Amino acid sequence: MLYTDTPVTMARDPSSLDSADLSAFKVLDPATIASINLLPSNVPKIHKGLTALPVRSNSLGAFSSEPVFHYLYVKPHDPQYTPVINANPNINGRSLYISSIPFDSTVHHFRALFTAIGGGRIETVIFSDEPLQPQPSTADENNILKNRKRKRSNPAAANKQTAETTPWPSLWNRKLHLPGTTAVAVFIDKTACDLAMKAVADNSTDNPNLDYFWGDGIGKGNSIPELGISRYEDHMERMFPDQEWAQKFVDDSLEAYDNRLKREEEERRRKANEPDEDGFVTVIRSSRPRPILSAEEIAERLKKEEKKAKKGFYPDFYRFQQRELRKEQANQLLSQFEDAKRQVRERKDSRKHKS
Amino acid sequence: MKPEIQSSNPRKRKLFESGLNDAHSLPLSITDFIKYQKCSAKEAAQITQTVNNIKQVLVCAEETKFDSIQDAKAAFCSHGAHIPYPECGDDIYGAPVFLSPPARIESELNLGHHILRKPGHDDAVVVDLIIQVPPITFHPKDYLEYRYLRKRILYLSYLTVALRGSTETQGYSFSHDFLDGDELRPTVLVDCLHVVHSKCRIRLIPAIPHDLFPIDRLSPNACWADRLSGVPTPMYNSSLVDDAHHLGNFELLRQHITSNEEFKGALVLGSTWLSRLGFSSHMLDGGFGKKEWALLQLHLVEGNVDTHSSSKYAASSDPFQIFKSVLNLIINTRLHPQTGTPTLCQTYTQYNILFKMSRWSFLALRHHSSAVVSLERSGLSSLSQFHRIFQNPFCQIYDITASFRIDTLQIMEKLPSTTARRWNLQHSINDYCYDILSKGLGDRYKTMVFCVPKPPLRHLENVLGSEKPDHDPYNLCISFTLDEKTCMRILEYGPGVQDTRGSTDFREFWGDMAELRRFKDGRVMETVKWDATPSPTEQILGFLHRKLTSPFQTKQPPIFHGCDSEIYLTTPPLIQPPGDLYETAISEFQTVVNSIRQVNDFPLGFRKITGISPALSLTSVKPPLSCSRYLEAPLEGELDLESSSMWPVDPEQRRRSEFGLLLKLRAELEASGRFLTARVGITTTRNSDNTYCFLDLLTKSRYYFRFRLKDAMDITPNGLNINPQIGPSLDTRNERLINTKQTFNLQESAVQKCHQHQFFAPSLRILGKWIQSHYLGLFFGNAILELFVAAVFSPYFPVAIPSSTYCGFRRVIAYLSCWDWRRTPLEVDVLRQFTDGERTQILKEFRADSWTNQGSEACLSVVLASEDGRVDWIRHRIPRLVAIRMTQLARETHSRLSDVSTPFNAVFDTDMAFFDFVIVLNQKYELCDSDRRYSNVVMLPKTNVSSSLYASFIRELRAQTDEYILLFPSPDSLLIGVLWKPEKESGVKVVPRNPGNTVPNKTAVLGLIMELGRGLVDRIQVPR
């Protein structure tokens, strides 16, 4: 059975669509798009050593049938200037540096692009905003070049993950690239790379027959999550992970962390009994229980606590109390001093009498 | 390159042309300030030249003799120099008239001694020319029956004819007006347009020798002008005395101005202060201007005052101290016990300096003077006092303004019989209205300021005819400054029952509203009880208006500006009337807090659970509603756990521990069965990828709360700061300030102190509404708005704390409109005032950090003074374009609200023309009505919360397009106004068009918007 709630009586604020005056605006139309559109004929082929590669986009198709272009800039990758070389020492000569990449770029997009324009086969794409995958140090570049079969690397094996370092669940189904992100497309070999660079030059802004749409030709097997409303709905779902899973995630993680700490502690203690290379033994805090207190110590502690309890009224809380306390102490010192003086005098006198 | 080059948007061009380089915004020394107020030497020289020309012409005027006044009038009329004037007094038209050149002409002292003040933007420089009429013109008995005035007018016409006939004064225009609004004394105005950059207006003021008439007989209660009626004519008498003292006072002032530089400085300070408060010598502007100020100052330094403090200041050699001594003199002056008029007579002459003042203006002036003098008592240094007084942007902002239609003829019948009705009627009506209003409002008000439309300047005529008194209806505008503590009282206390006379008066005044009421302590008193809404002051003013206009029927109801009813109940509603909606949400929050505290099996205790959502501190723009009524973002709270040594040191593991704690809490709360849903979620901070978790609770009353752990990332058990802030900055995470803990606490305590004022929260709500209406909500969170409002609730301003929402809002707007955030930080001295040393240090630090204000980013700096002597900085970084937009909007709003005819809700209209294009989002993701109707359905505000979806989209869109465009989302995120950023800022994603020239690929950006907002974005609109 359903119970009806109290009727909604409160007047709603008008939405901004109702209240805003958009009479001075019109829907984006082909004429406006044409006035701001950058056609390839207006874009130089080479800019600062990079070759422009226009790709068509259908994103403004709802407003105009005129093609809208996005311009990628490509040049052979010079590993000297990027840290990619450190992680991938074996991509020299077979990679292209691409800047101004679209925000939704994936490796599948680049594979489809270079396939469409007649470039070589891409092995992988390294994006500047993604963490670098460390390559096996034993990999031999020559071996890879000789053996064209794709090497199936095992990142899990290379980067061992424990429960403690299990990453938090991803809140997004797909990573989007921020402006300024660049990519390095690694081809399977140098020939493929050269072929790709040639294809880029052939399909640059001076080619009047540019008809490749960004994202065309991505195989059905490479399903890429959609953008737009479904992405944000999915995000909202991901914000609230399954509570049982979450509990397990936390338990495992913290257990592993505790275990690690314990192991480290044990290791530390073990090392405490063993002299190091120089013969020194590390001194650590003892974990032995303290000896039982003697009767005197217990009495002393009780006395202290009693004193503390007496002091509980904060006799030095106010300034005038502190002043009086200081005065009292000064008087006490003075009287002690006077006593001492008197005693000295008495002793001197007694000495005199004796003499 | 400036953005206006890129855009043809006229609004935007204006934005950049608006000068922010106002010298007012910089703290000036007293000497510099005085210097800044004066006209330039070049201007003064040109004006002096003009005045000398006029003097020359007047001295050389030809003597003229007429057989009768009638002949003289006819002659002047033929020259087009007739000044219409009501016929009055006895018939002396047959008397001969002899007119000769002035015996003496003196120009205003300010001109000769280089202390002429700069005029306002559209005002003219006004210079007075005092012209002594030769004694031969008058008969010794001419002070009777208005004869003096009639001859005075003839003499003015004579002077005008002389000026018109001369080639020296060719091109000047002539008109006439009443001298300071005194209808008894017309004056001729000479406008010289081509003299200086600004207009120059010269007033010809006739004066008579001191011994021409028996001045000592012209006391205020004497009857000389209209002896037949026998009614005293105080204004006539005073006007005559004033004319007789022009030259005497001039001489005395000249002596002091010549010998004392400080005296001159104090004159400039006084006239500046008065003009900022809206006072002038004009009778309808209060009747107290620079002339009266100068006479008071003269009175003071002549040693005529025995007040200790006044004498002390007078002896000082500082213009500011002399200025304050004059204020002390004003404070110590009282209304005349018998006549009830402001009276301060010069010792030797019995000349009442304040004769033009009304009761309202005198009391208002005293109030303002007290406010200034009280700054000294609050411990501010002299320089700080000076800055607070002369850089006070809150002048002429009142709590409530009422506009009445005054039917002069009707009101005239109600005036007391002793009031002069023929001359200066508006002055008398003002006094009458003041008496009624002050009696009705009692202790609810502090000041009342009357504003009457002034008649336009009249042209000199060439047709004979007397002027008829102007009795047309007019709008009387009265501005009130209320008492914060008493203005909302719903009970009006009258006299006790034993006071028979008082009770009769009370009943007579309040009529049927008066009730006899017995109180718990046994007192029996006459009372009037008002409803709680609309505000009692508004109801009282409505009642008093009826009283003023009764028994006549008035067609036009009074118009109030600043009433809560105007602010909350406009159509469409700007803000829902708060009512008890906030109270309900707060009590629901308390219930949730109690439930959390009752959880037994929880490893840590809760030190504090606080609500951080603006709705829980009554400051949200929309009142909090349950989910069943209005699907909105959750109300946020913060859990402050007791400290423990068991927290992991590793920050990542600590985050996971927090997640675990919240999961545990969720399990316990779910088991208690008090909530419809309880779930733990994770999200990331906006500016970093750090994950943090939160607990969502949906109560059975359908209130939706979100809790997170306080300072989860900042404090470690060992007291180490894990993520130390490099510098104080305003993070946008949850719109909260996360500076150092101390700064945060300081900000919180300052705001808490402001919350003691009942109009702080509503002012903040209105400011929030204003910010959101102009689509700036994304850039200004509640935390920074709190600081803006707190700045104007400082007790160290020479104005009262705002006593209405309207006033609070207007003051913030006034403050923002003159705040030059590029040069000075915003000072929030709610807890204590800044010392001079601190101010110097603050400016020094600000200048050292001025690089933060360069480029595309602006840094709004706020300094807070803590009670323990610390000064903390808060820096709020926003795009420079947004900061300039804020200032421009504040200026526009300030100027619009200064005009009382502007409806209040007009300032919330969004100017869409500002934007380069607009993104329109789909409006279909609302909770459907069928779901909303059932209260026992567990409703999870999950994917169907449109606002969250929109917020996620806008956040991502902002990250993707930050280099090219600025997004301005509407409050409900359905519209997003967009501005293209200046090209120099968008340096990355640009396409080279020609070598060395790059342009943004705008279509690619538009495509990105459509692609990212697929299903959310409905359309993009561009200007036609």
UniProtKB/TrEMBL annotation, chain A:
**In which residue ranges is the amino acid composition biased (Basic and acidic residues)?**
338-349
CDD domains referenced in this protein's UniProt entry, alphabetically = dRRM_Rrp7p, RRP7_Rrp7p
Q: Cite the InterPro entries for this sequence.
A: RRM_Rrp7 (IPR040447), RRP7 (IPR040446), RRP7_C (IPR024326)
Chain spans, region Disordered: 128-165, 336-355
Keywords, A to Z?
Coiled coil
Keyword Coiled coil assigned:
yes
Every copy of the Rrp7 RRM-like N-terminal domain together lies at 48-207
Q: Which family does it belong to?
A: Belongs to the RRP7 family.
* Name of this chain's protein: Ribosomal RNA-processing protein 7
What is the organism of origin for this protein?
Orbilia blumenaviensis
What taxonomic classification does the UniProt entry list for its organism? Eukaryota, Fungi, Dikarya, Ascomycota, Pezizomycotina
From TrEMBL, chain B:
Q: Which keywords does this Swiss-Prot/TrEMBL entry list? A: Nucleus, Ribonucleoprotein, Ribosome biogenesis, RNA-binding, rRNA processing
Entry-linked PANTHER family:
NUCLEOLAR PROTEIN 6, NUCLEOLAR RNA-ASSOCIATED PROTEIN
Protein family (similarity comment): Belongs to the NRAP family.
Q: Which Gene3D superfamilies match?
A: 1.10.1410.10
Protein name as catalogued: U3 small nucleolar RNA-associated protein 22
GO MF annotations, alphabetized:
RNA binding
Output the GO biological process annotations, alphabetical, semicolon-separated: rRNA processing; tRNA export from nucleus
**Which InterPro entries does the record cross-reference, listed alphabetically?**
NOL6/Upt22 (IPR005554), Nrap_D1 (IPR035082), Nrap_D2 (IPR035367), Nrap_D3 (IPR035368), Nrap_D4 (IPR035369), Nrap_D5 (IPR035370), Nrap_D6 (IPR035371)
Provide the primary localization.
nucleus
Where is this chain's protein located in or outside the cell? Nucleus, Nucleolus
The yes or no answer to whether the keyword RNA-binding is present is yes
Q: What cellular-component terms does GO give this entry? A: CURI complex; small-subunit processome; UTP-C complex
Domain of life where this protein originates = Eukaryota
